[in-house]
Design goal:
Layout lengths: L2 H13 L2 E5 L4 H13 L4 E4 L6 H12 L6 E4 L2 E4 L1 H7 L1 H8 L1
Parallel strand pairs: 1-2
Antiparallel strand pairs: 1-3, 3-4
Helix pairs in contact: 1-3, 2-4
């Protein structure tokens, strides 16, 4: 994994109000995307399994967060975690975090 990829991922985390790393076939990712669509349809979602550099992005996320699994959710630069972490916050708290 290149330093350039790490920098690109860090930039997405910093600049996107909601950033989700996902995979199209993952049921937990589907649950996260469904919830985010209700709360913040503008969420920036990367489908790692459809991207040539997807595994490298996933490696960069693991290095940055310590979490290798998807979904990997960030709100306003803060690492939320996975689907269960997001769901446990509830819609109102997620809305507050987004601002």
């Amino acid at each position: 994994m290149s330093q350039q990829t790490i920098s690109q991922v860090e930039e997405l985390i910093k600049t996107k109000p909601v950033f989700v790393a996902s995979k199209t076939y993952c049921p937990y990712c589907s649950a996260t995307k469904k919830l985010m669509k209700e709360i913040y349809p503008e969420a920036y979602i990367l489908e790692l399994d459809t991207m040539e550099e997807g595994s490298e992005i996933q490696d960069a996320l693991a290095k940055i967060t310590g979490q290798r699994t998807v979904p990997n959710v960030f709100i306003n630069g803060k690492h939320i975690g996975g689907n269960s972490d997001l769901q446990s916050l509830g819609k109102e708290k997620i809305k507050k975090l987004i601002g």
